[in-house]
Design brief:
- The chain has 12 helices and 15 strands.
- By secondary structure, the protein is of the alpha/beta class.
- It has a domain of 199 residues: NAD(P)-binding Rossmann-like Domain (Rossmann fold), CATH 3.40.50.720.
- The strands form 5 sheets. A 7-stranded parallel sheet has the order 3-2-1-4-5-7-12, with helices on both faces.
- Strand 4, helix 4 and strand 5 form a beta-alpha-beta unit.
- Helix 4 packs parallel to helix 5.
- The radius of gyration is 20 Å and the shape is globular.
- The chain starts with 5 loop residues before the first helix and ends with a helix.
């Protein structure tokens, strides 16, 4: 087994909580800057994480007794883990802050769903949250818990509110294949987007440049309604467009979860992201990304 170099041990330690798709895209960007630890509840992922340059830490946010190893493990933390799928509070984040100990810097990846339905309005980061479903209420709870914890401990906290994440392998192709209907234009909602690779870079910028207690919208420049997004993907891949239906008719055909996504309309402003974090997006909008895929 190859031992880490002495320079690796000299690097600042960083802990990633929730090293899924975005975390794996982030790991190459952290190489040479940090000695990275990655929390996983799946022992079978350890070899994958090691190969990507992280030191795996096997523990489970749903099992507080397993989190003892996290105390004072790393002064830099990226919290990318979603809440558990039930309830109105984020028990996982509560378990995490109880276990962490001393932390200098933490970035939390939240969701734009915390705003609820905004009627298609342009939304800035200071808009009051108004979550309409359990998913969003759990995220609001996590943000509040982290703010209170950071205030007590002195940790610097930045929050990224993230919309729909897409990438070449994260497109609604199956939905298009199945012919799932979309809303007609007059009933449709504005959605927001960010490419997974850009999100990974935004997380790194927030870690190094984010202001303490600050919220940032991790969103691109796209101004598009949901059905138009599906049409753009369908056209890019030569697939039939989704049929469009009135809301009352569509509500009888789709799942409650899908209908909830089709019931919230907002346009996220990303001025703060560009001015304060100085982010330059590789994929500034969905059209640019799809054009590259076509090429």
């Amino acid at each position: 087994m190859t031992m880490p170099s002495r320079s690796a041990f000299a690097r600042p330690r960083l802990l990633i909580i929730g090293c899924g798709d975005v975390g794996m895209r982030l790991l190459p960007l952290l190489a040479g800057r940090f000695r990275v630890f990655a929390l996983t509840s799946q022992p079978e992922r350890c070899s994958e994480l090691r190969a990507a340059g992280a030191v795996p830490v096997v523990a489970d946010l749903d099992q507080p007794a397993t989190l003892a190893r996290l105390r004072n493990l790393a002064p830099w933390v990226l919290h990318l883990a979603p809440p558990q799928p039930d309830g109105d509070t984020d028990r996982r984040t509560r378990h995490l802050v109880a276990a962490l100990g001393a932390v200098r810097r933490i970035v939390y990846v939240s969701t734009s769903g915390v705003y609820g339905d905004c009627g298609g309005a342009l939304v800035k980061e200071y808009r009051p949250v108004a979550p309409k479903n359990g998913r969003a209420r759990r995220r609001v709870d996590a943000e509040r818990i982290l703010r209170a914890w950071a205030l007590v401990t002195g940790a610097m906290l930045s929050i990224l509110r993230v919309p729909g994440i897409y990438a070449a392998d994260r497109l609604p192709l199956r939905r298009l294949e199945q012919g799932t209907p979309a809303l007609r234009f007059e009933d449709d909602v504005y959605t927001n987007h960010i490419h997974a690779d850009d999100l990974a870079r935004i997380v790194l910028q927030a870690l190094t440049r984010g202001r303490s207690g600050r919220v940032y919208h991790a969103v691109d420049d796209t101004r598009m309604k949901m059905a138009d997004y599906f049409d753009a993907v369908a056209d890019a891949f030569g697939m039939p467009r989704s049929p469009r239906l009135p809301r009352a008719e569509l509500a009888q055909l789709v799942s409650p979860v899908l209908l909830s996504y089709m019931s919230e309309s907002r346009q996220l402003d990303n001025t703060r992201l560009r001015r304060e974090l100085r982010v330059r997006l590789q994929y500034p909008d969905v059209a640019t990304a799809l054009a590259r895929l076509r090429r």
